[in-house]
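User: Let's play a game. I give you a shape written as tokens, and you guess the letters that built it. Ready? Here's round one.
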């Protein structure tokens, strides 16, 4: 689904030099490269504070801990997301309130969000899914109306731009109270292991999150808060600084792949190509098609596999139906759009190194497998 080796080979000299500098300096924990990367990412995102941490799940947890939400409070979250967004809500003793998503953008549905707010609601955790922003204008308006905090999950959309109704352009993750992201290797900005970061323009929140990520201390052995141990390795920070310089060109390359797919599939009545929002650009972490009703997705995937074409389902089971979260009382039929998407979506390979020849093989093979459903 991605070509990490090909991407590395193009920037091998830069990456190898950056790694060697860390090894030569032997500052493997919280070394200069960590502070340098945080500053670079602040500049790129045009945000006041970036707090690096160990992974994207930790980023979400630290963000929610810093907001000091009371146990038993509700956090509104789309069910259609990777489990990490929901996981930390449950682990911290909050109640996830699962919200529908829009059938075209796959992002949180504003009408359903508004309906599900109660007196217990304290925060909204929108996810910028597959590479484009949720409707942050509407989300922020709802948050202001009901006094809610907003934690953006930007793990799949780092670099995407949101355009407000007033024409203000901000990067994903810098719009709400706090933004979070992951640097898992397959992300648009990925390191060579685990990594994550938290973003905010709030100085006090930034200070608190830095402490929480460092055992709740500003200086060693003086613990002011109950915290966690969540650090971005210096080597990973050095790699990320190199790759950050290429992030916009990576997004452009992904868009070229997406455009070629769109053109190839435009006339098919068996698939629906990805929707592009008017208020957000798309960095295409995934290229996710919606299959027509009646297509046997398992058989289609099997046929593709026989042709050597990989595909993935993001995600086969919505979070509100996962056994881990059955205690929250949701059942099949509660989120019909989300449940319908879980049976119809299919993602094809998309990455920065995909050439026309490789993509043509995927396109031709995919069309060949779809013929039986025409």
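Assistant: Ready! My guess for every position:
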């Amino acid at each position: 689904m991605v070509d990490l080796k090909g991407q590395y080979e193009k920037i091998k000299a830069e990456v190898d030099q950056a790694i060697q500098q860390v090894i030569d300096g032997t500052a493997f924990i919280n070394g200069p490269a960590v502070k340098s990367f945080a500053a670079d990412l602040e500049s790129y995102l045009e945000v006041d504070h970036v707090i690096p941490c160990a992974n994207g799940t930790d980023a979400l947890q630290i963000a929610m801990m810093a907001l000091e939400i009371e146990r038993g409070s509700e956090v509104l979250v789309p069910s259609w997301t990777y489990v990490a967004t929901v996981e930390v809500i449950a682990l911290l003793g909050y109640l996830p309130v699962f919200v529908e998503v829009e059938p075209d953008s796959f992002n949180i549905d504003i009408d359903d969000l508004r309906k599900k707010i109660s007196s217990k609601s304290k925060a909204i955790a929108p996810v910028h899914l597959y590479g484009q922003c949720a409707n942050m204008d509407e989300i922020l308006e709802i948050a202001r109306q009901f006094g809610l905090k907003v934690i953006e999950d930007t793990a799949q959309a780092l670099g995407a731009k949101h355009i407000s109704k007033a024409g203000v352009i901000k990067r994903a993750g810098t719009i709400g109270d706090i933004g979070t992201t992951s640097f898992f290797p397959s992300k648009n900005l990925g390191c060579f292991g685990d990594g994550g970061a938290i973003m905010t323009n709030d100085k006090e929140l930034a200070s608190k999150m830095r402490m929480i990520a460092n055992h709740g201390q500003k200086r060693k052995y003086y613990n002011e808060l109950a915290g966690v141990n969540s650090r971005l390795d210096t080597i990973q920070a050095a790699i990320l600084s190199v790759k950050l310089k290429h992030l916009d060109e990576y997004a452009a390359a992904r868009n070229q792949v997406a455009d070629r797919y769109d053109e190839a599939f435009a006339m098919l009545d068996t698939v629906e190509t990805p929707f592009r929002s008017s208020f957000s650009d798309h960095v295409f972490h995934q290229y996710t098609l919606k299959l027509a009703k009646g297509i046997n997705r398992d058989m289609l995937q099997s046929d593709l596999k026989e042709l050597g074409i990989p595909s993935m389902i993001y995600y086969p089971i919505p979070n509100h139906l996962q056994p881990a979260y059955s205690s929250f009382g949701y059942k099949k039929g509660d989120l019909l759009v989300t449940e319908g998407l879980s049976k119809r979506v299919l993602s094809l390979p998309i990455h920065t190194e995909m050439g026309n020849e490789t993509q043509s093989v995927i396109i031709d093979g995919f069309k060949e497998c779809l013929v039986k459903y025409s």
